[in-house]
UniProtKB/TrEMBL annotation:
It comes from Ferrimonas pelagia. NCBIfam families: PRK00197.1, proA. This is Gamma-glutamyl phosphate reductase. Pathway: Amino-acid biosynthesis; L-proline biosynthesis; L-glutamate 5-semialdehyde from L-glutamate: step 2/2. CDD domains: ALDH_F18-19_ProA-GPR. It is found in: Cytoplasm. PROSITE patterns: PROA. Its EC number is 1.2.1.41. The gene is proA. Catalyzes the NADPH-dependent reduction of L-glutamate 5-phosphate into L-glutamate 5-semialdehyde and phosphate. The product spontaneously undergoes cyclization to form 1-pyrroline-5-carboxylate.
């Protein structure tokens, strides 16, 4: 037996990627349609498997964000299928000619998009990622090796059955999408060392998982998905519109990476804005962690923020609140505490907005909009494989283009280099 139990899986994935490489857009879209059909046909089995995972997670003491991410129901499965249909409608980037020029020697030189090859994706209690990654990988002609968390084991197995049945209907290899369904953590380390067969590694989870991958992987790693997201309310903002955006960013779905974590408020408008806003947020179950100046305005509606509270991704109904003297102090705070995921400014002063946009280095920056838009579907990319906060290869929601690379093609006339 091989010392690396994933070697055969990697070899099979590589071979499958060669078969996927030869598929045209119509064939790949037919495959994605088949996945939609199989997910509908397997709905009862998928939800039953998820119920097993949910019961085990609750018994193990999981709560809040983890349980919300783990849950599948009919509505969420329908949303997953809708995201697949969105991906089907998107143009296939593979084969796209990025540029072309005629050299002085008469050779035509062009760049053409091609699949990356084999993707390795490690994620935690998010069964939707199993489908999202598989669909985006297959649409771009890639193969994928998936490793979900032990909390999602039964859900992921059931989802994989549907995906494999879809591949079979199109006479394509099941190895195009594989799942490491053994919870042994040693297999994660083994995957990180599989550079002979895996071309890109994408972790989706907490800071610990990202750190592990960066420290131990031999494979290029795309990091991101950890959100410490900020919204700055400038003195030139329309105060009657602030509450709706703050509530949307914080309350709509607090357990996701693009939810709001810290609200920065210009000190000149804080006495008019914060008390009523705090009452609204408290009524929605939001706990406020306020700097001393903000706490002086809010009293019992908030608690004094601790030393680490402005460096937290809450993933819960908790919001940091801090007063700042202006846009420069807001920018300095964000630079000190942000994970470079998503930030927003509310203002009608476009020069202030432009200063904010130019100075903030996050993967998504908004003017007069919620941070909740940092999402592949909202960006028109389909369901993203991850949200990247790094600066090489891809940034922000990673859709189809981010799962491709390119090659140079030179077309000569029996041209020799002089």
């Amino acid at each position: 037996m091989s010392d690396n139990p994933l070697l055969a899986m990697g070899q099979a994935a590589r071979e499958a990627s060669y078969q996927m490489l030869g598929l045209g857009a119509k064939q790949k879209n037919a495959l994605l349609q088949a996945i939609c059909q199989q997910l509908r046909q397997h709905e009862a089995a998928i939800l039953a498997a998820n119920a097993i995972d949910m019961a085990a997670a609750e018994q193990a003491g999981l709560q809040g964000a983890m349980l919300d991410r783990l849950l599948l129901n009919s509505d969420r499965l329908a949303a997953i299928i809708a995201d697949i249909e969105t991906v089907i409608a998107l143009a296939d980037p593979v084969g796209e000619e990025l540029e072309s020029r005629l050299l002085d020697n008469g050779m035509r030189l062009s760049r053409r998009r091609i699949p990356l090859g084999v993707l390795g994706v490690i994620y935690e209690a998010r069964p939707n990622v199993t489908v999202d990654v598989a669909v985006l990988a297959l649409k771009t002609g890639n193969a994928a090796i998936l490793r979900g968390g032990k909390e999602t084991l039964h859900s992921n197995r059931a989802l994989l059955v549907a995906i494999h049945d879809a591949l079979a209907t199109q006479a394509l290899p099941k190895a195009a999408v594989q799942l490491i369904d053994n919870p042994d953590r040693a297999l994660v380390t083994a995957l990180l060392q599989l550079d002979s067969h895996v071309d890109m590694l994408i972790p989706r989870g907490g800071a610990g998982l990202h750190r592990l991958c960066l420290e131990q992987s031999r494979i290029p790693v795309i990091t991101g998905g950890i959100g410490i997201c900020h919204m700055f309310v400038d003195q030139a903002a329309q105060l009657d519109k602030v509450a709706d955006l703050v509530v949307n960013a914080k309350v709509q779905r607090p357990t996701v990476c693009n939810a709001l974590d810290t609200l920065l408020v210009h000190e000149a408008i804080a006495p008019r804005l914060l008390p009523a806003l705090a009452t609204t947020l408290r009524g929605l179950g939001v706990e406020l962690r306020a700097c001393p100046q903000a706490h002086a305005l809010l009293g019992e509606r908030a608690v004094v923020a601790g030393p680490e509270d402005f460096s937290q991704e809450w993933l819960a109904l908790v919001l940091g609140v801090k007063l700042v003297a202006g846009v420069d102090e807001a920018i300095a705070h964000i630079r000190a505490h942000s994970s470079e995921h998503s930030e927003s400014i509310l203002t009608d002063d476009m020069s202030t907005a432009e200063r904010f946009v130019n100075a903030i280095n996050s993967s998504a920056v908004y003017v007069n909009a919620s941070t909740r838009f940092t999402d592949g579907s909202q960006f028109g990319l389909g369901a993203e494989v991850a949200v990247s906060t790094q600066k090489l290869h891809a940034r922000g929601p990673m859709g189809l283009d981010a799962l491709t690379t390119y090659k140079w093609i030179g077309q000569g006339h029996y041209t020799a280099r002089s």
